[in-house]
Design goal:
33% of the residues lie in helices and 22% in strands. By secondary structure, the chain is α/β, with parallel strands linked by helices. Strand 7 and strand 8 form a beta hairpin. The structure holds S-adenosylmethionine. S-adenosylmethionine binds next to helix 2, helix 3 and strand 4.
Length: 216
């Protein structure tokens, strides 16, 4: 090849990222040992006073979380499920189902403020979420506290999807989650105690639970 006829090296085109499947297969996941573990972990914290409160949960059409909470003693009528993705399916089986995202639910159900004894925000997004999907777990967590949803002694379970665990490290996301929960709790008159039992699974998900106690 002559000096003047050098081969033009074109940049390799980036492989298009595979888009994640939007739909969550509730039936398949209801047998997933990690999901069973997280639900049972929360249910074990539901002693007699706690089951008298209201619960806000992200649940799927398999209703694994609802069923676990009912077994623990919660009344079905006190369990609230916002889910615009499989609304019809859930609504057929559970009355208090809402055709909206969690963020909208929190905007419109302030009569539940101060009454929530258990919340399982079982997100499928990263902590900061995505503009295109209009889902931002960090904003939802902020709203949960600024609208004062927790009662005096509430359990809050949260699952987030980790960014890229291989390059960012799991620690940064987990620290951010703990920071956001404890900061928004504190700013709104609560103490958040991170419970032992935080668990990473499937290389990309992280579950953590907190006891939220009203500061006097
Ligand atoms: C991870 S699944 C819930 C699984 C259930 N908690 C269990 O343990 O089997 C989350 C469900 O809530 C829906 N969802 C995710 N983010 C949401 C949001 N911000 N608002 C409302 N629904 C959401 C998903 O489409 C899915 O059906």
């Amino acid at each position: 090849m002559s000096f003047f006829k050098q081969k033009v090296v074109t940049k390799p085109t980036k492989k298009k990222a595979k888009s994640k499947k939007e739909n969550y297969d509730g039936k398949k996941h209801s047998k997933d040992e990690n999901k069973l573990w997280a639900n049972n972990f929360l249910a074990d914290l539901c002693y007699s006073e706690r089951v008298k409160g209201q619960a806000i949960i992200l649940d799927s059409e398999a209703l694994l979380t609802t069923k676990t909470l009912v077994r623990a003693g919660f009344k079905r009528a006190n369990i609230h499920i916002p889910n615009p993705f499989v609304y019809e399916e859930i609504k057929r089986k559970h009355r208090n189902t809402y055709n909206c995202l969690l963020s909208e639910f929190l905007d419109n159900h302030k009569h539940l403020a101060g009454k929530v004894s258990l919340a399982f925000l079982d997100f499928m997004d990263t902590l900061h979420g995505s503009e295109t999907k209009d889902r931002h777990p960090d904003d939802d967590i902020k709203k949960f506290f600024s609208d004062k949803y927790p009662n005096d002694d509430c359990v809050l379970g949260i699952t987030i999807s980790l960014r890229n665990p291989k390059t960012n490290g799991v620690g940064a996301d987990v620290n951010n989650l703990n920071y956001i929960v404890s900061r928004f709790a504190y700013e709104n008159g609560y103490h958040a105690v991170c419970l032992p039992g935080g668990k990473g699974y499937k290389g990309g998900m992280f579950f953590s639970a907190y006891r939220i106690i009203k500061a006097h």
